Amino acid sequence: MKKQANEKIKTYGAKGFRERFLGEENPIHLLFKSNSDHFFCLKIEEMMGLQFPVPPSKHSCHTIIFITSGIHSIKIGFEEYYTYSNGIIVVPAGQIFSLEHLNNKHVGFVCQFHPDILIGKYGGSEMINEFDFLKIGGNPKIPVSETDFLFFINLFNRLQHEYVTSEKANLEIVQSYLMALFCEMNKNNIKTTKDTSAATALSSKFKALIYDHIKINHQVNYYASLLNVTPNHLNKSIKAATGKSATKWIDETIMLEAKYLLYQTTFTVSEIAMQVGHEDQSYFSRFFKKHEGTTPVQYRKMIDKS
């Protein structure tokens, strides 16, 4: 049955997704531990597959699927992707995807992690910005060369080992392995022809500018001027290439930078507000709570407890 035009596409958290599509009686639920909503890495054959097709949906976590044998299919945005042996497919957090065909004949790994994991000790906004496959509208399909296959197997095995052998995975160790995995994926990433479109090229330049100028200006007009295009053209291009508005990208960049600073520094909330271009601390706190559901102070306390 097709979705009604006015029906919203649902965004699932990790636990909600499992409860909806794995089936209540599925013994796979026993594999998920206390912090699996933030991270898990399991072999596909252990997970035994989904019980129900997934309609167009969004997930709050990034998902990386590494196929070592067989064929996996998934629809991301408006395109259907087939991943064969020695291939990786990435579904970024917030990206629309669907799974119509439940094929349990492929093997490999599924690694899922919340974006906040990348805010830890070894992360940085500039570094994360280098990984195109973690962005909506980026290239989600990454082939693995024969010479690098063992490197990927080792990294996924290490991530799986950290998850299954600990009651609560050490997220700092997980982050270091994820960063190594991302660098290997970048090396193997082959740009598709659509990545050279004018909208995608403009989008890439825009996103790079945000990180460079986030302390200075948050207005779409400002970035349009730097790129020598009209604000309307910039908005249309960004929306076409990524599915999100230019304003949404600016807001998400402010939030990501603020989270890094809350995690990695002892700056006061007022100092962090200044670092991300907000001179008014109270306005920044309201902005942060609107997007995160909690205040900067509460967010930092949650980090300290994790």
UniProtKB/TrEMBL annotation:
<keyword id="KW-0804">Transcription</keyword>
<feature type="domain" description="HTH araC/xylS-type">
    <location>
        <begin position="204"/>
        <end position="302"/>
    </location>
</feature>
<protein>
    <submittedName>
        <fullName>AraC family transcriptional regulator</fullName>
    </submittedName>
</protein>
<dbReference type="InterPro" id="IPR018060">
    <property type="entry name" value="HTH_AraC"/>
</dbReference>
<dbReference type="InterPro" id="IPR009057">
    <property type="entry name" value="Homeodomain-like_sf"/>
</dbReference>
<keyword id="KW-0238">DNA-binding</keyword>
<dbReference type="InterPro" id="IPR020449">
    <property type="entry name" value="Tscrpt_reg_AraC-type_HTH"/>
</dbReference>
<keyword id="KW-0805">Transcription regulation</keyword>
<dbReference type="Pfam" id="PF12833">
    <property type="entry name" value="HTH_18"/>
</dbReference>
<dbReference type="InterPro" id="IPR037923">
    <property type="entry name" value="HTH-like"/>
</dbReference>
